[in-house]
Specification:
414 residues; alpha/beta; 21 strands; 30% helix; globular
Length: 414
């Protein structure tokens, strides 16, 4: 966009917004980052379950650094951050509540993936699973159904068949990692390089825009810019006021973007409990899975981590009422663990005003052209966030990749 420095406003200090801002700053432009919360990271949030005990570091949001996270690893290398192996594998889980093995579930997944590859746009994943029932073990198929709903944070009746091709649906025992010291450190390091360009407590209510300039309206005042990168979650972005209104093709793509709902639960071990091995176990009926994992020291953390996906599962586990009901179910599922359920902590995103969702889901409303429509810029408006990341939607890597793309649109590749 020329050699003259621009003023670029980035809305949102999650992975996508901070990555975009950093790259735009590197290209020589002025950057202002507006973040509604009082912290950076968005839906990546690292915290000690027991304050002052680094062994209890948890990820209240995105957790697993998986195969193919090339942009994230490159950023970490630049900032001197390292990965901590988790011992267990994200991809391998013991299904409980059915008479099926992990291997049997993997076989069922192959059949479903092949059927889904032939499915028409708009067909539900539930119908694909029903079709596969004649070819695979019923209990393995039910375990797969559960896993798909958990991973996509959406019931299979609402999911489109394309969700079966999600990059995280794999069954090989590939290693899993977290950032040593917490995934949020990536955001913290990005923000540190932006310094006082990051402004907290800035809630954006609307944007006036044209082909050449924009005015971002916040509750503390207006901010003018020559370019805007909008990096808020999909559920927040589509409720924002734009003047003039965005064209119908953009609004329609936003409407079709599925909102996935998920929650996490962390339950510490009882004081003085013996060391346990790492593990990964899924509750097929209740649509959640649990794991114990190693930290940066190589020792298994004194707690169990849990993740539930789909609004139906969250209602069943009564997460809105607190951690008690879910923690009781975990205690029953994981009788092998010395849990202190009284100290359990639950984290939800649907009721968090600056996210309102866990991450994007591919629903039956999705159309092949939507990925491009979600990414496409309008005048000075550019769009980032995991929901604009195509095959990488819903992931930390996707958020970072979207920030790179948006920055390149604004300032050119660096």
């Amino acid at each position: 966009m020329g050699e003259v420095a621009m003023r670029v406003v980035v809305v949102g200090a999650g992975f996508a917004g901070l990555m975009a801002a950093w790259r735009v700053r590197q290209a020589g432009h002025e950057v202002v980052v507006l973040e509604a919360r009082e912290r950076v990271g968005g839906r990546v949030w690292s915290e000690e379950l027991v304050a002052g005990d680094p062994r209890t570091l948890i990820e209240r949001g995105a957790e697993f650094v998986l195969d193919g996270y090339d942009v994230m690893r490159s950023v970490m290398d630049e900032f001197g951050l390292s990965l901590a192996p988790m011992g267990m594998s994200y991809y391998v889980r013991e299904p409980r509540g059915v008479n099926a093995t992990h291997k049997a579930v993997a076989v069922a997944a192959e059949v479903v993936a092949e059927a889904a590859s032939r499915a028409a746009v708009g067909r539900s994943l539930a119908s694909v699973l029903d079709e596969a029932a004649a070819q695979v073990d019923a209990e393995a198929l039910e375990a797969l159904r559960s896993r798909i709903e958990v991973t996509n944070a959406c019931p299979v009746e609402r999911l489109g068949a394309a969700a079966a091709a999600d990059v995280t649906i794999a069954f090989e025992p590939k290693p899993s990692f977290r950032v040593a010291g917490g995934n949020q450190r990536v955001a913290v390091e990005l923000a540190a390089r932006l310094g006082d360009a990051v402004h907290f407590g800035e809630i954006v209510d609307g944007i006036e825009w044209s082909e050449t300039e924009a005015r971002i309206r916040t509750r503390t005042g207006d901010v003018d810019a020559e370019a805007v990168v909008l990096a808020t979650p999909m559920a927040v972005t589509r409720e924002m006021a734009f003047d003039p209104p965005l064209p119908l093709w953009k609004a329609d793509a936003w409407t079709r973007a599925g909102v996935g709902q998920a929650a996490k639960l962390h339950v510490p071990f009882a004081a003085g409990a013996a060391v346990v091995p790492w593990s990964a176990v899924q509750s097929v009926a209740d649509r959640y899975w649990t794991w114990t994992a190693t930290d940066a020291t190589g020792a298994v953390q004194p707690m169990v981590h849990c993740f539930a996906g789909s609004g139906r599962a969250l209602d069943r586990l009564q997460v809105e009422a607190g951690p008690e009901a879910w923690a009781a179910r975990v205690s029953s599922l994981r009788a092998d663990l010395p849990l202190d359920v009284e100290q359990a902590l639950v984290t939800t995103w649907a009721d968090e005003p600056f996210s309102r969702e866990a991450y994007t889901a591919i629903t039956t409303d999705w159309r092949p052209e939507d990925d491009e429509a979600l990414q496409r810029s309008l005048g000075v408006l550019h769009f980032a966030g995991e929901h604009t990341a195509g095959d990488w939607a819903g992931l930390m890597e996707g958020a970072l990749r979207s920030g790179v793309r948006a920055a390149d649109e604004v300032a050119g590749p660096i």
